[in-house]
């Protein structure tokens, strides 16, 4: 088995950053009114800027495949061109269509040459799953390199004309901010963008990162769906898919809007996340003292202190000086978030040879978690 290195990382964030005062102008006003819940959600998620593939006139500037294609292109130069890519592995929550697959559409835009493609479905873990597919391909010698991506274009899902009515119980939101998550938290949190990495079996470049191991865990055997789109959650916890509803009900029921079961989220997301992290660390003999940089993908800073306490409670505590996040600067970019954190950390110039980086990506859809442990070379 070969070693695998992340030799290049790129990102593509569309247009200019959008601050909190202008985001509702971009997405539109629901029922022509300013959201009462927006300030409460923003106060808790603490995001200051995000990116939308929408221009000032409300026109779409990029679809998901185009965002991803731009990130892949930014990986390439005269020494490694798009024609050198052997495997294209792409993960996203928000593909542009049901068929063809997301990776196929990105390949079509690259117009390079015949190669293998893989599309990882799901939510935030889809980017890590795309990375793991590429990692295993290079590690086994199936391919000499792999380009792996995570991307999202969710802004069009959050536009006022297709989004459900806002949360109306302002007093409840003030007393328990997590209630706002059920309807509006995604609207004031999600961001567009794409990240890409180049995997190869030999290190090269200024700060290559060796992938020591990757792990994934699903708790779908224990828990019902928490975040979902394309269906309706029934009283028995099952999801009735859009394809089983009459077409005239798709819009009326907002079947394609993202929804969140906040009760399940608050009760399980951190406990299961830290439990699976502990399993991964114990499996590979890693202790907190062997982690120099901890990169957790969290959807909101609302969870930051609680995650810190849960890590301490389960005896895998990470001191604050190890934490590296950029949520406030780029927003929650779902499957791309972990790529964007890696890119910013590598670009910062802080990394030193031999340092260890731990990536943690949760997915609330039905409670999946993905991990990677990296060494700076």
Automatic annotation (TrEMBL):
Gene Ontology terms describing biological process: secondary metabolite biosynthetic process
Domain Beta-ketoacyl-[acyl-carrier-protein] synthase III C-terminal per the UniProt entry, residue ranges: 281-359
Swiss-Prot/TrEMBL keywords: Acyltransferase, Transferase
InterPro entries in the cross-refs: ACP_syn_III_C (IPR013747), Ketoacyl_synth_N (IPR014030), Thiolase-like (IPR016039)
Boundaries of every Beta-ketoacyl synthase-like N-terminal domain copy: 121-201
SUPFAM superfamilies attached to this UniProt entry: Thiolase-like
One term of GO molecular function: acyltransferase activity
Protein name: Beta-ketoacyl-ACP synthase III
Annotated source species: Cerina litoralis
């Amino acid at each position: 088995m070969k070693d695998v290195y992340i030799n290049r990382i790129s990102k593509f964030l569309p247009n200019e950053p959008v601050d909190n005062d202008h985001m509702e102008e971009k997405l539109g006003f629901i029922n022509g009114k300013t959201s009462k819940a927006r300030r409460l959600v923003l106060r808790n998620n603490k995001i200051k800027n995000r990116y939308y593939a929408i221009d000032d006139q409300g026109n779409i500037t990029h679809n998901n495949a185009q965002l991803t294609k731009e990130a892949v292109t930014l990986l390439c130069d005269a020494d490694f061109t798009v024609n050198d890519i052997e495997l294209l592995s792409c993960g996203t929550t928000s593909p542009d269509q049901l068929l063809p697959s997301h990776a196929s559409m990105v390949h079509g835009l690259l117009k390079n040459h015949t190669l293998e493609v893989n599309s990882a479905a799901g939510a935030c873990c889809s980017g890590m799953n795309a990375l793991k597919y590429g990692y295993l391909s290079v590690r086994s010698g199936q391919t000499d390199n792999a380009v792996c991506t995570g991307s999202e274009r969710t802004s069009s899902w959050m536009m006022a004309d297709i989004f459900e009515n806002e949360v109306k119980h302002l007093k409840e939101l003030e007393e328990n901010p997590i209630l706002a998550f059920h309807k509006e938290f995604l609207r004031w949190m999600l961001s567009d963008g794409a990240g890409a990495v180049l995997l190869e079996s030999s290190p090269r470049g200024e700060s290559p990162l060796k992938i020591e191991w990757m792990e994934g865990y699903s708790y779908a055997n224990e828990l019902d769906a928490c975040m979902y789109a394309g269906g309706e959650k029934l009283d028995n916890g099952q999801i009735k898919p859009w394809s089983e509803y009459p077409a005239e009900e798709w819009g009326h029921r907002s079947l394609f809007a993202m929804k969140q079961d906040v009760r399940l989220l608050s009760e399980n997301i951190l406990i299961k996340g830290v439990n699976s992290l502990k399993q991964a660390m114990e499996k590979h003999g890693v202790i907190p003292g062997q982690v120099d940089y901890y990169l957790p993908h969290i959807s909101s800073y609302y969870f930051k202190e609680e995650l810190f306490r849960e890590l301490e409670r389960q005896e895998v505590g990470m001191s604050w000086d190890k934490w590296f996040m950029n949520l406030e600067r780029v927003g929650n970019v779902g499957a791309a978030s972990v790529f964007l954190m890696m890119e910013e950390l590598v670009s910062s110039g802080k990394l030193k040879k031999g340092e260890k980086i731990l990536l943690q990506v949760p997915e609330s859809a039905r409670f999946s978690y993905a991990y990677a442990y990296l060494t700076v070379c």
